[in-house]
Every structure is written in C-alpha cells, then in structure tokens.
Amino acid sequence: MEKAGDKEGALQPDLLRQMLKGTLFDGKIFYYESIGSTNTRAKEIGKAGGEEGTVVVAEEQTEGRGRLGRQWLSPPGANLLFSVMLRPALRADELFVLTVSLALAAAESIEAGSGVGCQIKWPNDLYVGRKKLGGILTEFVANGKDVESVVVGLGVNVNWRPQDDPGEGYQATSLLEETGKQVRREWLLVDLLNRFENYYERISRKETREIFEMWNNRSLLFGRWVEIRTGRGRVCGIAKGIDETGALVVIDDQGEENRVLSGDVSVERIGKRRG
Ligand code: BTN
C-alpha cells in the first residue's frame, strides 16, 4: 500500500497546472516541497504585487499556522496544505464570506470525492462527526481602510493517520482514517479550487446571502448548546447561525440574541440540546 510521503504519492505540480488551465488559477501555481507557511508565502506574493488567484501549495510546512496563534502540524507529503491570494472588492468586515466559501467548496469536494459527510464548525473548521478534518486561516493586508490582498489558507488531513502523531492536541481525523483509502490530492485540490472559483464569482455578483444560508445548512453548531470563550469572557446559548459579518448568533437562557465575532467554541453533549 502506498505510504504517505512516498515519492509516487507526491503532488505533481505540472498535472495541477494542466488541470487548472482556463481557471482563475491558470499559470499561478507556486509549489514547494517544504516551506515555512503557505499563508506567509502567499501574503508576500500579494505584497509584491502578485496576481489575484495565486495558489501556494506545499508538501510540508515548517511553520504552519492556525487561528489564535496556534501551530498547524502536518507530516510531509500526506495532506493538503495550500493558500490562495485574492484581491476582492470587499471591506475588511466583509471578508468572512471568503472563509465561508472555501469551507463550503472543501466540504462539497470532500463529499463528492470520498463520500465523507463533512460539516463546518464556526468559524473556520471542517469536521467529520466530532473530529477535526481541516481548518482555514484567513489573513489580509490593508492600506488604511482598503483591503489590498487577502489570503485564505486551508489544511485538510488527507492521507495521514492522526493517531500516529500522539502530540496532536485535538481529536483529529483524515480522509484515509474515514474511508481506509488513499486520496490523490491533485484531484481534491483541483475540484476544490474549481468550486471555490464558482463561489468567488457569486461573491462578486453580490450573492453572499445564499452563500451564508448554505453555510448555515452545514453548520455543526446549528441548534446546539454552545459555550464560546471570547476575549471578553464566556458566551453560552443555542447557536442559531452566522450573520453576514460572520458573527455567530447565539440565543442565551434569557432569550437574548448575542453576536460573537471571534472565539473558541465547545459544543456540549453533541447531538443533544440542553434541556
Ligand atoms: C485552524 O484550524 O486554526 C486553521 C488552520 C489553517 C492551516 C492552513 S495549512 C495551509 C495554510 N498555511 C498555514 O500556515 N496555515 C494554513
């Protein structure tokens, strides 16, 4: 059986380039065997005036980053690690729709390609059941109020057995773990990028409301009792969904609506509402 990291399992950048001809990403694929962080590299390319639609993809990251200053760990040659640089006509407070779109594109692609049902956990995680399959890190570079470039980076656990890396601090899963089969990462990446481009076009046509509705339909938190640790303390209640700024709307015990812009969510008794 092909092992993660075997040469024959390595990404083939030329194949990727060929399959992405005619898309927004045509001629803009930067491939690295090893790099600090694909997000950092994509931001540099953005700052240097690079073209929108630039994709940085790597087999390994030595300084992979997650949200809230966390590390993103991934063994070489096994998973999907990439970032897309864009120059959308959006304000900073509208950028969450890009995270939403990438999460939707990834979830759809994973389901279509491997049959693994995938949900989205606010604000940026892909989950299969109770286990984390992937995460998104969105960053932007602004000049005053103007957003100059945005980088959306995604890590998906593909051909990796998370239990082989006991250092992982969260309950992780992978497509290999869920299906018992190795996945060709080029296929997944190309399909995902095609879907993402479609969402990006919808964003430029201002069809963001539908996108948020689709996200809410895939939300792991919808209708569940959640506890969110924010910079200003804890918020508890039933998660209703996200609004168009990306805030999670939570109804507390008093029936009051709270909007939470960022934080770490835990779900109490998954699958059950608090009585
Ligand atoms: C999270 O779960 O907190 C987000 C993780 C995002 C990881 C991806 S891997 C590709 C890209 N490059 C990075 O350094 N981070 C993102």
List the main descriptive attributes of the protein structure presented here:
five-stranded antiparallel sheet, seven-stranded mixed sheet, 6 helices, single chain, alpha+beta, BirA Bifunctional Protein, domain 2, SH3 type barrels, disordered N terminus, binds biotin, 275 residues, disordered C terminus, 27% strand
Task: Report what the structure shows.
This protein is α+β, with helices and mostly antiparallel strands. The protein has two domains: 13-217, Bira Bifunctional Protein, Domain 2 (BirA Bifunctional Protein, domain 2), CATH 3.30.930; 225-269, SH3 type barrels. 26% of the residues lie in helices and 27% in strands. The protein is built from six helices and twelve strands. The protein has a seven-stranded mixed beta sheet, with helices on both faces. The protein has a five-stranded antiparallel beta sheet with strand order 11-10-9-8-12. α1 (13-19) packs parallel to α5 (185-204), α3 (96-114) packs across α5 (185-204) and α3 packs across α6 (208-217). The longest helix is centred in the C-terminal third of the chain and has 20 residues, at 185-204. The protein is globular, with a radius of gyration of 18 Å. It starts with 12 loop residues before the first helix and ends in an 8-residue tail after the last strand. Residues 1-6 and 270-275 have low confidence and may be disordered. It binds biotin. Biotin (BTN) binds at residues 37-39, 61, 64-67, 70, 72, 81-83, 124-125, 135-137, 153-155.
